[in-house]
Write a structure and sequence with these properties.
The complex is a heterodimer of chains A (275) and B (442).
Chain A lengths: L8 H11 L4 E7 L5 H13 L4 E5 L10 H12 L6 H10 L5 E5 L2 H7 L1 H10 L4 E3 L9 H10 L2 E3 L1 E2 L5 H10 L4 E4 L14 H11 L5 E4 L5 H8 L4 E4 L1 H23 L14
Helix pairs in contact in A: 2-4, 2-11, 5-6, 6-7
Chain B lengths: L7 H11 L11 E2 L2 E5 L5 H15 L2 H15 L5 E3 L1 H4 L6 E6 L9 H14 L4 E6 L3 H13 L2 E7 H6 L1 H9 L3 E5 L6 H15 L3 E3 L10 H24 L5 E6 L3 H8 L8 E9 L10 H4 L1 E5 L1 E6 L24 H8 L3 E7 H15 L5 H23 L8 E6 L7 H7 L8 H10 L2
Parallel strand pairs in B: 4-14, 5-6, 5-8, 6-7, 9-10, 9-14, 10-13
Antiparallel strand pairs in B: 1-2, 2-12, 3-4, 11-12
Classes of the chains: A alpha/beta (275), B alpha/beta (442).
């Protein structure tokens, strides 16, 4: 994982959590749902209630990695007239009020449309930490590698249970900030249990040299957070937070975040290898 | 073309073509700057497995023999090359020949691809295939291949399309497939592909995604073309056999572009043959309600490939519109984008009205009811024929010296309700009238 030359905001946020003897909490919110103002308020609530990193999703017409809850939210945001450029307002709105590292999660076509360099420049200007790219693999990322270096942004690629050793190595080498480990073969959505595959993916990423691996997909409660915090540097929660803002607004996001964060502390003895 | 070709890859390829390099058998993953794999990492291993299996199979005499046997004894290949003499009178008097993919089992070119991919699924030890479908042609073909080879089959189809094409849903179910109505996004073909991809990510261990067109992530564009190359190979041999010469022009319709790339491939390296792809112009490209992806789109990535794409300024996919469900797709196969940029193939829009007029004409002049998709190619052939006739006259020759081949990619039985409504042939109170009305709203 390349961390030299560029100061990684994501890495710093994860390392701060690590220094406190816990895993980092990463919360996802779709931009513009139910409104741009609500996303900013919910992002601030996330940071104030225990999230170390915040992932802001750009609503997209063809979200192939998303399950029904996030699809419904992003479809609604688009129907209400959300524009891609507004994601920079959301990022700036959160980074100006909190210390959380704010990443943007986006399917790749909106970035291509704006121009990879232009998108990166504006994201950096808004105080963003980097991008999480669910449908961009390092093999196709030449332009993004260049732009992310130029503007000092983190590039978070995904690794999956199906990733071969070679692909794991390539992806870990291309990533900066952290590596996003997909816990199961599937799309986003709350699940009652986190598959045992997650632990293996994290171990494989660590073996490939990744210092920071965060687990996402299917994580929805403090118990699952606790389970993952024992072996990964960070835990990513998405669908559960989207359901919270849908059903209870910003207050529900704050309450869920507070609850999730109780699972972050590593129980010494169980994870003796962690410093 | 909306954007000029960019990058050295394009320029080098253009140079190579101009200097006489071959355009045939392009292996992917890239066609100039198009193609590639813009896909979630979770699916890359499956794409690698498919690529490896396909590469081995196409060099394996046993596999080639299996495909050839199915093509001959199951699909009914070779399909005929029929001269359309009375139709020709309306195309400037040039001689028009129809490549009769409508005569294949299941009524379209789609069978070529599904049989090949189903064989590959078996080779990979997969027990389940999934597919997307618009009007139902590819879904029916997939269900057919799955039944033949004992595979479980699940077809994703937009909820609105399911209602509109209730009989095609019944056909798939008769063949043993499960049809899942897609209610996400715009509930159309592109969303059916999205849901199929979501299914594939979750079930990739036992499931092959039987993509129906020459689009998507590598190796799909090159692989789907491979299974359709038989169309162009047959047509080229047939016209040489029947007329002793190559055609002046070849015409096909373009949605994702699988029938087109199949017939084009046979003629790509024949510089004397002009090649035309006809996109769905819907209500007219000036109205914004169309599916003319190459004519008006801009390069972007969708469903795994970089290609021309109907998108707004934010990069959101724009919903396409066409009377033909099979052409109603906002993307296009990457090899077509490349062939457009280098100028080897000309892509032009045909409106719903032009296509339906050609539909009516072929029915009345040749006794053949074409698919509305294929009717776009027929309408284009009329325009091309008239241009060629003018050229012939300028050169002191006659239109009869010119030959145009049209890929008649499918039969129109599935389109009778839509056509009957278009031409106002139904009793206002009939059940068919209700179905037709919905069909017209495409």
């Amino acid at each position: 994982m390349s961390t030299a030359q560029t100061t990684s905001k994501s890495a710093a946020a994860i390392d701060k959590a690590r220094a406190e003897g816990r895993a980092a909490l990463i919360g996802y919110l779709p931009a513009g749902y139910p409104s741009v103002e609500d996303t900013i308020a919910a992002g601030i609530a996330l940071a104030e209630n225990g999230a170390d990193l915040i992932e802001i999703g750009i609503p997209y017409s063809d979200p192939v990695m998303d399950g029904q809850v996030i699809q419904a939210a992003t479809t609604e945001a688009l129907a209400k007239g959300f524009h891609v450029r507004q994601v920079f307002d959301v990022v700036a709105g959160i980074t100006s009020k909190t210390d959380a590292a704010v990443l943007v999660m986006t399917y790749w076509n909106p970035v291509i449309r704006m121009g990879v360099d232009e998108f990166s420049r504006r994201l950096a200007e808004a105080g963003g930490a980097g991008l999480i790219t669910p449908d961009l693999i390092p093999d196709e990322a030449a332009e993004w590698m260049e732009a992310s270096d130029k503007y000092g942004l983190d590039r978070v690629f995904l690794v999956a249970p199906s990733s071969t050793t070679e692909r794991m190595q390539r992806t870990v080498d291309a990533s900066r900030g952290f590596v996003y480990a997909v816990s199961i073969m599937g799309v986003t959505g709350a699940r009652t249990s986190v598959s045992t595959a997650a632990k293996d993916v994290v171990a494989a990423a660590h073996a490939a040299g990744a210092d920071r691996v965060c687990v996402g997909l299917g994580v929805s409660n403090a118990e699952q957070v606790r389970e993952i915090a024992a072996y990964a540097e960070g835990v990513i929660v998405g669908t559960a937070l989207v359901a919270a803002i849908r059903d209870g607004g910003v207050d529900a996001v704050a309450a869920l975040t507070k609850d999730l964060s109780t699972g972050l502390t590593r129980e010494t003895g169980l994870t003796g290898e962690e410093a | 073309m909306a954007d000029a070709p960019s990058g050295n890859a394009d320029n080098n390829a253009t140079e190579a073509f101009l200097q006489g390099g071959s355009l045939k058998h392009a292996p992917g993953p890239y066609f100039g700057s198009y193609g590639g794999r813009w896909m979630p990492e979770s699916l890359i291993a499956a794409l690698d497995e498919l690529e490896e299996t396909f590469d081995k199979a196409k060099d394996d005499p046993d596999f080639r023999a299996q495909v050839a046997d199915l093509n001959k004894n199951y699909s009914g290949r070779p399909s005929l090359l029929t001269e359309a003499k009375r139709f020709s009178e309306h195309a400037g008097g040039v001689r028009v020949f129809l490549k009769r993919e409508d005569l294949n089992h299941t009524g379209s070119h789609k069978i070529n691809n599904v049989l090949g991919q189903a064989l590959l699924a078996k080779r990979m030890g997969k027990t389940r295939v999934i597919a997307e479908t618009g009007a139902g042609q590819h879904g029916v073909a997939s269900a057919t291949a799955a039944a033949l080879m004992g595979l479980e089959c699940v077809v994703y189809m937009g909820a609105e399309d399911c209602r509109r094409q209730a009989l095609n849903v019944a056909r798939m179910e008769l063949l043993g497939a499960t049809v899942i109505p897609v209610t996400s996004g715009s509930q159309t073909l592109k969303d059916a592909i999205n849901d199929a991809l979501r299914d594939w990510v979750a079930n990739v261990d036992n499931t092959h995604y039987l993509l129906g067109t020459a689009a998507g992530a590598h190796p799909f564009p090159a692989m789907v073309r491979y299974f359709h190359e038989v169309i162009g190979e047959e047509a080229r041999a047939q016209i040489l056999d029947q007329e002793g010469r190559l055609p002046d022009a070849v015409c096909a319709c373009i949605g994702g572009g699988s029938n087109a790339i199949g017939i084009f491939h046979g003629f790509l390296d024949d510089p004397s043959v002009k090649i035309y792809g006809f996109e769905a112009g819907g209500d007219g490209v000036e109205t914004g309600r169309h599916a003319a992806t190459i004519t008006l789109g801009k390069p972007g990535v969708l469903h795994g490939a970089r290609s021309y794409l109907m998108q707004d300024d934010d990069g959101q996919t724009i919903e396409s519109h066409s009377i033909s469900a099979g052409l109603d797709y906002p993307g296009v196969g990457p090899e077509h984008s490349y062939l457009s940029d280098i100028g080897r193939v000309s892509y032009e829009p045909i409106t719903d009205a032009e296509a339906m007029e050609a539909f009516r004409l072929l029915c009345r002049t040749e006794g053949i009811i074409p698919a509305i998709e294929s009717s776009h190619a027929l309408a284009g052939a009329i325009k091309v024929g008239q241009r060629l006739a003018a050229e012939a006259a300028d050169a002191g020759g006659t239109a009869q010296d010119k030959i145009v081949i049209v890929n008649l990619s499918g039969r129109g039985d599935k389109d009778v309700a839509t056509a009957a409504e278009w031409f106002d042939l139904l009793d206002k109170n009939s059940a068919e009238s209700e179905i037709g009305k919905e069909g017209e709203q495409l």
